[in-house]
Amino acid sequence: QVQVAESGGGLVQTGGSLRLACTASGRTGDTNSMSWFRQVPGQERKFVAAITWSGGRTSYADFVKGRFTISGDKAQNTVYLQMNSLKPEDTAVYYCRTTVGALLTYWGQGTQVTVSS
What does each C-alpha distance from 63 to 32, 85, 89, 108 come to in angstroms? Predict the structure, then answer.
């Protein structure tokens, strides 16, 4: 089994920054990517950013490009999401997902990010 834990959420003003962290533990030997998603109550969970350990490739949703940066430490099975120029519409619960092997995915419990106007 794999356990995923996020941290770093909180309350910030418009234009501010936050850094989220996510660490996976347990049977993480075949982890090939880690991703961030976010969800607003009543809406579907949306992809935010991902990093693939092989080659360090990153990808972003259009609505965060230029403002958010994903980075990670493969040896520590840790991924970060640096969020700058935050907007009220970035308010959501942010979830970390770890993909192990080809099909297995594990989710964290989420961390709340609130951006005040």
Answer: 24, 12, 10, 22
